[in-house]
Amino acid sequence: MYTTEPNNEHLEDKNMQSSTTPQILKASDSKPEETQETILSKTEETKPQVEKKSSCPPQGTLNETITNGVMLFMLWCVTWSLSGPEALPGGSLFGLLIIFYSAIIGGELLEVIKMPSVPQLPPLLGMLLAGFTVRNVPFLSDIVHLSNTLSSTLRNTALTVVLVQAGLGLDPQALKHLKGVCLRLSMGPCLIEACSAAVISHFLMNFPWQWGFLLGFSLSFVLGAVSPAVVVPSMLHLQEEGYGVEKGIPTLLIAASSLDDILAITGFNTCLSIVFSSGDILSNVLSSFRDILIGVLVGAVLGMFVRFFPSRDQRKLPVKRAFLLLSMCVSAVLGGHRIGMNAAGGLCTLVLSFIAGNGWSKEKIKVQKIIGTAWNIFQPLLFGLVGAEVSVISLQSNAIGICVTTLSLALLVRISFTFVLTCFTGFKFKEKIFIALSWMPKATVQAVLGPLALERARISAPHLEPYSRDVMTMAFLAILITAPNGAVIIGILGPKVLTRCDPSKMKVELSELELH
Fold it and tell me: What does each C-alpha distance from 465 to 245, 277, 403, 451 come to in angstroms?
């Protein structure tokens, strides 16, 4: 008994040791497995990072550049496959593609160029200079030829997109609460610049009084329109930062810029119809008012139709609305030119888009984005074609100096009169200065309307072509001078003279604005 107990205890100790050793081994074996799993997981996580850093295939900006280049090349391949010789050097489609590509590159280059303490210049300036370069560089000008009919159709289509954006951009509430000062700013400076430019063009540019006053009015309406492409982005940036929000200055200038364009386009088409029409002036004026009335009525009817068709329960509603809106407006503008009712198409487009957009309420934003995508395509074409219309060889030696002088005097009258119109509106002196100078940039409407006089003169009145070419040159110089300077003035002067409010805390209702 005595000897067996120790043996039993010894055996029990061995059993306990033997039972615990597998657990220890299992525990010890599990640690390497865990470390292996963690190492594998870490290596698997690092693999994608290594692949991202590798330069084959390229990533980021280089990949995007190669992709866009291949897409542009394939666009030419498809065009060549469909049209054949027209897409080769000397053909109209080849010239159009060259201008389109050059304008895109010019706009991108201008966006890349950034100077310290200077606001970003509008890309449309690079597009304009790219078209001018294509026209005046010897090798490019020899292989780039563009049909006048194709160029005219594209510019009129771009005009349609501009008018649709203007109609959709009109805010009824802003017009209601800012109607007094908004109407004064949209109509007064444009009309006073029209009169002053007509008189100045007679004395400086030798426009005869007999019909030159009307052509001078056409020129002045080209110069009189302010550009939403420059004003609206600049004002939206100031509004986001809270500058001038308390008195609604950005909202005022955004709304007035659309009305200003409407007045300029309507006045230009009316004057142009009178200048290039046969018969006495009274009958031409009456026919122009007839075209205006027909355009407003047709636009109102089509606007009410698009307002309710398609209905809200349909799928892809914004796409259908945008398609109907663009197709109707393009048909109205181009069809109006076909039947000789030039002023009717533009007004039809404005009324149609305003009535339809007013009924879509907040859903209008989705349609505006689609229209904005269409504008991104037509903007390079428009400014590239305008730049390509200006030839240095065809300019007279003193033409540029006379055009710059006319433009400067008309701008001086416009800025002074705009300052006078802002009096008695509750603005401070420095705010009046800012509004007057902000009403200077010109781009979009000048690019659309400038070539129209030259185009009409080539078709129906060749003896007026020299004067129409002066109108085209003035439009080009107006964009070249006022667009970058206006953007810089707004970007630098706005934060210095406008009162800043915290945009996160500031919620201003238009009904609270005390503007008259």
Answer: 47, 15, 16, 11
